[in-house]
Amino acid sequence: TSPFTFRKLAGCTLFITGASRGIGKAIALKAAKDGANIVIAAKTAEPHPTLPGTIYTAAEEIEAAGGKALPCIVNVREEQQIINAVEKAVKTFGGIDILVNNASAISLTGTLETATKKVNLMMDVNVRGTYLTSKACLPHLRKSKNPHILNLSPPMNLNPMWFKNHCAYTISKYGMSMCVLGMAEEFRGEVAVNALWPKTAIHTAAMDMLGGDGIEKQCRKTDILADAAYCILSKPKTFTGNFIIDEVLLREEGVKDFDVYAIAPGKRHLLKVRSDGQEEKKLSRSQQEGADAAKAKTESAAATPSGPVAETFRVIQGAVTEEYVRSTRGVFQFELSGDGGGTWYIDLKTEGGSAGFGKPPVTADVVMSMSSADFVKMFTGKLKPTLAFMTGRLRIKGNMALAIKLEKMLSQLNSKL
Questions:
Q1: How far apart are CA 326 and CA 349, in angstroms?
Q2: Does some domain include residue 289?
Q3: Total number of domains constituting the chain
Q4: By residue range, what is the domain housing residue 331?
Q5: Catalytically annotated residue among 131, 169, 261, 345
Q6: 321 shares a domain with 220
Q7: Which of 72, 155, 376, 415 is deepest in the core (most CB within 10 A)?
Q8: Where does the pLDDT of residue 311 fall: very low under 50, low under 70, confident under 90, or very high at 90 and above?
Q9: Do both 127 and 237 map to the same domain?
Q10: Pfam families from the xrefs (predicted)?
Q11: Confidence band of 411 (pLDDT split at 50, 70, 90)
Q12: Strand 342-348 with 243-245, pairing
């Protein structure tokens, strides 16, 4: 029997930001099956050239699932749009019972590589948008019998590894978590305020853009977050101030089969939280390798290393074409630790292109630091660059757009390597 059988959100009104696609829409559809009212507060009114869904197509799906939908054009950076949508929701459905702060902006880039407009976007959407939407909904939530605010944000772990590769993004998401920390206490006894975060990466359009082809095999479906959110929102308002991991909660609720949530059952998933000490220790070792790589010195030019790394670069050199140079226009430097390590490069900017041992002939646009073993795995298709980057096994400095171009080239070279 399902742990959800006797929990119903029938008649409840949910105000969900970013509900036109992905996680927000999945939560909406789960509640809609109970006959809930869903306010779709998102900015996509016209079809996006690359992202699926609009507030209107989401409304059609919600109605088909058994709920009532109110699509509202809302950019959470615009306070008046939030206020207008809240007023329309109250007028249409008589109140608001649940707020899900799902809208989020992401840029997994280092401090020097994050443009100011990206910093502003993440702070405005993630922190300020969450705060202002909560502020606008709270007067109405306080009138509900069992009100909830649920933020899609992580538990606050101050381990530097969560900051070093994407400082601005982490700050913005932790800002959402701090809203939970403060508001849960401020409105204790009146409104439940909690945070929900996935244990693994979730397959969404945003993840496809970040990870490229094949990343979905390391992800779970949005259904797991929808089920976890349903559990939280069905609990009494005394359940507040919690930072919840989807899998942990669902196990407590009696779920045993998590393969049903996997895009590719049996595959190892890309972790977004560390749940045990052993995994932490593994990451610490890879971090140490990264530190070692940063200190690596160029080996004697007269004694070029041999082994898997050298063989990989030999194949890359043979595969470099003028087409790769024209389409990439970038120089990549690799600081590798371990066997066959040292400084290596791929020059896809200079006419003819080249690859080999030592520093590149011109200044590198991108510097990548990692272990030589992971480098070989990455260039032979056994390790996704996104996975290596997000778990700290790969550090990138410089032009992130060029790094993404290199990843695309890797997918073409894998058959030769």
A1: 8
A2: no
A3: 2
A4: 308-415
A5: 169
A6: no
A7: 72
A8: confident
A9: yes
A10: adh_short, SCP2
A11: low
A12: unpaired
| Judgement on whether residues 191 and 55 belong to the same structural domain of the protein | yes
End-to-end CA distance of the chain: 49
Residue 2 lies in a domain: no
pLDDT of residue 291: 36
pLDDT band at 214 (very low <50, low <70, confident <90, very high): low
Please name which of 148, 198, 139 lies closest in space to residue 173, comparing C-alpha atoms: 198
- The alpha carbon torsion through 196, 201, 202, 208 (nearest 10 deg) reads 140
pLDDT at 55 (0 to 100)? 96
Is the pLDDT higher at 18 or at 284?
18
Residues 6+ away with beta carbon under 8 Å from 181: 156, 241
CB 370 within 8 A of CB 290: yes
User: By CB neighbour count within 10 A (0-12 exposed, 13-18 middle, 19+ buried), where does 88 fall?
Assistant: middle
In a domain? residue 290: no
CATH number for the domain spanning 331: value is 3.30.1050.10
Task: State both tokens at 220.
Answer: 């779970």
Q: Are residues 80 and 210 in the same domain?
A: yes
- Residue 320 identity: V
Q: Model-level pTM?
A: 0.66
Please check whether residues 227 and 352 belong to one and the same domain. no
Residue 296: band (very low, low, confident or very high) from pLDDT cuts 50, 70, 90: very low
CATH number at residue 66: 3.40.50.720
Q: Specify whether 174 is catalytic.
A: no
Mean local confidence (pLDDT), 13-37: 96
Question: Of 231, 261, 291, which marks where a domain is finished?
Answer: 261
Average pLDDT over residues 56-60: 96
Q: What is the mean pLDDT of residues 77-100?
A: 98
- In a domain, residue 45? The reply is yes
